[in-house]
Structures are given as C-alpha cells and as structure tokens.
Amino acid sequence: MDKLKNLSKNILLVISSITLMFIIAETGKRAYDKIVHGFDFFGKVYRNDPSSMFIYTDRGRRNRPFATNTFIHPQRRKVVHVKINSLGFRYDELSPEKKNEFRILILGDSITQGMRFNRDEVYVGQLEKLLNTGNDTGIKFQVINAGVGDIGLAEEVEILRENGIKAQPDLVGIGFYLNDSRAPWGVFVEKGYNYFILKHSRFIRWLYRRIFVERYVRLIGKSRVAWVETFNERKWVNDRETFYRMIEEAESDWGAAWRDSSWKFIEKKLDEALKLAEEHNFRIFLFSFPVSVQVEAEFFDNKPQRILKKICEERNIPFLDLLPVMRENREKNLFYDQCHPTFTGNTIIAEALYKFLKNSRLLDLAMAEQYHQQAK
C-alpha cells in the first residue's frame, strides 16, 4: 500500500514538474517574442483554418474579424494602424445596403494586405483615392482590401466564397503572385501547425519546428528559403545561369510559376472564381505582381506572365501584367525584398491599376450592369 502511495506521489510530482516547466517555457517564449519582435502581430490579426480546430484543410489563414493593432513597423520605423472589419477585411464596416456605392473587392496575399503601411498607403487604398478624385458621377468608389498574409489562390477563392460575396462587390480583382499555386505551407510537415496544441502554445510550436520541420527540410536538402542566399548575393542580376538556378531553388515558393505543372491548379481555381462571379453578378479581373528578380535582372524573362495571360484570355478575364511598368521604373526603390513593394512601388501599382480600369472599360461595363440590376 505504501509503495502504491509513494508511486502515486512520484507520478504526481513528475506531472507537476513537467507542468511547471511547460508554464515557465511558454511564459518565457511569449516574453521573448514580445521583446524581440516588438508586437504580438500574428496572434492579434490572424487566425488559422476557421473550419476546424484540429484538421488541416486548404482553407488556410484568415484575418481575425474586428481585430485591431497599432505598432511601429521595424523596417519603416513608422506607426502602422491595423483595423479589420466584421468580414475579415482591412477596411471600414460596409453598409448592408449600397447607396450610390461601387465596390471593388481586391483579393491577394501579404503584398495586398500591406502590413508595412497604413491602409491608405497600400496600393489598394491609393487606388480608391485615385478613383474618387475628380469623380463627378455621384458614385463613391469603395476599394476593399481583402488581402491576407501567406495565402494563395485557393484560399483567396475560399475567402471570396465565404465573405467576399457578402461585401456585394461589383468588381473583384485578384492580385496574383508567382507562388499562388502552392499551399500556405511549403512542406507537408508544417500542416501540423494546425493542431490544437500547436495553435495555442508558442513553445510547443517552436519545439515542433525545431524537431520536425527543420529536420525534414535538412533531410530532403531543400527549403522554402534555400534561394535567399543566392538572392542576397545578387549575381543573378547579370548571370542567367545563376538566375535560373535560383528559380529551381525557389520551386516551393515563387519559382513554382516556372513549372508547367503549377498552372493546372491555377486554371481550376480561376474557373471556380468565374462560377461565383456568374452566380452573384460581378466581374473579375486579374493583375500579376512580378518577383523582384524579374524587374532588376539585366535580361528579360516573363514566362509566368505569358502563361497567365493566355489562361486569362481563354477565359475572357481582363489581365494586367505589372512587370513592364515595374521594369520601366526599376531605377527607383521599388521593393523591400523579393516581392513586397515600398511606398513608391505601391504608388506605381495603384496608378497602373487605375489606368487599366479606365482604359479597359471595366468600370463602365460593371457600372452599367449594376444599374441594370437595380432597375429590375
């Protein structure tokens, strides 16, 4: 009996010790994150797969409805205010009834979400200002930022299906980046991040990455960021061989756009978006962000954009390739990294989109359809 009692005490002591160690480790990791990163951005703004707490699906990350955050961005060293509305969009609350409003919903990833900037500084906000400046039609243009960091076309179509339709858009723009065919996570073991304990414990999540994710990456000899060292050396600016080697290294990221196998998936998701557009009476257009190496290299390679243009033409989707206008302005400071535009880059994108919407008559056609629907 005494042996059983002692065993129970020892088991309880072990459990208590492990629990205490976990609490200390978790508290320490959270404190470290707050001190080193300066803000608890991801926990406040993002939530993972809203469809399930335990099982990974392709629905991926979403903005947390009603989330707010204010922080000093470490790169720009400027105060950034983030406010998410009830639909999960970086925009003001939308009226359930449109009154002289023309709504353009912009889907995209971190480029579109633009968390280095305040809302009106991102190309989406700048486009809204351009459309409303000198506008004497009596119609207010609302350009709604539905961007979410680290998602692809599959998640963007799901966002459109879930809440985008509720915004009653007249036009939907898809901000396409070259890694949009891939899943939100680059290697399959990262799907484990969606389990309950990994969602809620930063220490366990860190441990999981160290033990499983990084080990897997070492074993297969590849990484989502294997190309970064080559990118930073910048030999690719003048050397074609280095340029194409870097594309291969980045095959789980933006390099996927040079693989022919990636595009079947893109076609499938665009067809789903078109079906939603037909069912809910809005038009779709697509614009493509280049990777910075395409802009800055001395030679020209637009293979992904050519393929995407052909896909859009086959589906009668108006398409804007931003690579030419970015190359025209390549002497300016356009990028923070391989893809995220500076304020200047955002301004150039906004102006290009404004001209595109005006010249393509997309606005006129969509406004005519809106008037027709209201008259019914």
Which descriptors would you attach to this protein?
376 residues; alpha/beta; Rossmann fold; 5-stranded parallel β-sheet; two-stranded antiparallel sheet; globular
Question: Roughly how much helix do the residues carry, as a percent range?
Answer: 40-55%
Tell me the CATH topology of the domain at 99-184 and 255-375: Rossmann fold
Structural class: alpha/beta
Strand line-up across the major sheet: 6-5-7-8-9
**What is the CA-atom radius of gyration, in angstroms?**
23 Å
CATH superfamily of the domain at 99-184 and 255-375: SGNH hydrolase
Strand content: 5-15%
Which second-level CATH architecture of the domain at 99-184 and 255-375 applies? 3-Layer(aba) Sandwich
The SSE string, one letter per element, is: HHEEEEEHHEHEHHHHHEHHEHHH
Oligomer: single chain
CATH class of the domain at 99-184 and 255-375: Alpha Beta
Question: Sheet with the most strands?
Answer: 5 strands, parallel
Number of strands: 9
Looking at the structure, what is the overall shape?
globular
Overall average residue pLDDT: 85
Q: Low-confidence stretches at least 5 residues in length (pLDDT < 50)? A: 50-58, 185-190
| Count of individual helical segments | 15
